[in-house]
């Protein structure tokens, strides 16, 4: 019987994709995936450092494994963004002696060697590289869905928003060659992929450091030409680098899905400045206006941080005003979390109750608006790429072009296909409809 592995992934889609790459390496070595810790010989935590609660989940898991002798002979590995911070890595290595292998975000390519070395020597292995070296690498990955895939286009980040740890964990920004990306997507499409999600910390700055210079607009135009590719999505743009030629693509490229995730972070120009975001609310609203002018069906979503140390009640009200003005289709809202190395972590934190109160007010408003927006979709039809079928209840679910989850009475043969669904009912986060 094959030995088993389990990978627990925290954080963003880039981390999810890294886990898919690790899966490929493990299966090449003959291991098989399980969702049960007890059955696994190899346990991997692919960690995220973006907020303290993401970190705490990892400590929680390492803690209960350490306290349980059933797990003494397991090979516990910790990788991902937390490992790129010297302090956090040292803390884990000192406190959790059950951790046998530690490696960083730039050591995916030699994971197989690291594991083999551990198996031979039994020694604890630590491999961390600070440099992004994957710009010329095309990785194999095991995708959870046959018909959709992540594709990295940039690594790292040069923005240095004052609250964010990413530039310290993922290093300086570098872009993959345009031809390599196109080749990878072509290969994926030949393998049955219909939808790709391009990944980068700031996709709109794609290609700036390449020789000759390339642009995100150019990349999207090239990818749109690939026959049999149906849908292009991406994560995440940065308002500071969004230009008109990019927005115009929403009216030109049939495969570019009408979805724009545009992190706002705060609706106060003063706080945006404090956060080193390099755009004003005016520029932001201008982008939203243009995007909607070009494609009125575009869905706009965002990320907002509440409780940045210099945020006053007045500043927070400006965030609420922006939410009223933009009327987002969905949003991720976060409470500010001080992160090691970042300038904002040196500032005095706001009172916890004040921040919680603001967070609740924001979430309530966001949900209200999201619900009202969705009410307007009742009676409309959307193309849905079906992701799964639940045989117990006979429903299928998938995503419409705007990225919204749609559930309908379906059948298993529809998985991986694009079907037309008319929306009949909605709640804040899901739409329900029938095949047309
Ligand atoms: N505290 C809270 N939220 C944060 N984010 C990034 N860093 C922090 C932090 N220190 C949020 C931002 C970003 C999203 C991925 O996570 O909103 O867009
Ligand atoms: Fe992703 Fe950032 Fe978390 Fe790393 S720290 S997993 S890049 S969100």
What's this model, at a glance?
The protein is an alpha/beta fold and 436 residues long.
Give an overview in words.
The chain is an alpha/beta fold and 436 residues long. The chain is 32% helix and 23% strand. The chain contains 12 helices and 19 strands. The strands form 5 sheets. Strands 2-1-3-4-5-6 form a 6-stranded parallel β-sheet, with helices on both faces. The chain has a 5-stranded mixed β-barrel with strand order 15-16-17-19-18. The protein has a 3-stranded parallel β-sheet with strand order 7-10-11, with helices on both faces. α11 packs parallel to α12. It is globular, with a radius of gyration of 22 Å. The model has no long low-confidence stretch (mean pLDDT 97). The structure holds 5'-deoxyadenosine and iron/sulfur cluster. 5'-deoxyadenosine binds at residues 50-51, 163-164, 263, 265, 303, 305, 334, 336-337, 339.
Q: What's the number of helices? A: 12
In angstroms, what separates the terminal alpha carbons? 47 Å
Strand content: 15-25%
Low confidence ranges: none
Mean of residue pLDDT values: 97
Report the count of strand segments. 19
Strand order of the largest sheet: 2-1-3-4-5-6
* Structural class determined from secondary elements: alpha/beta
Q: Per the principal axes of the C-alpha atoms, what is the gross shape?
A: globular
From the alpha carbons, calculate the radius of gyration and give it in angstroms: 22 Å
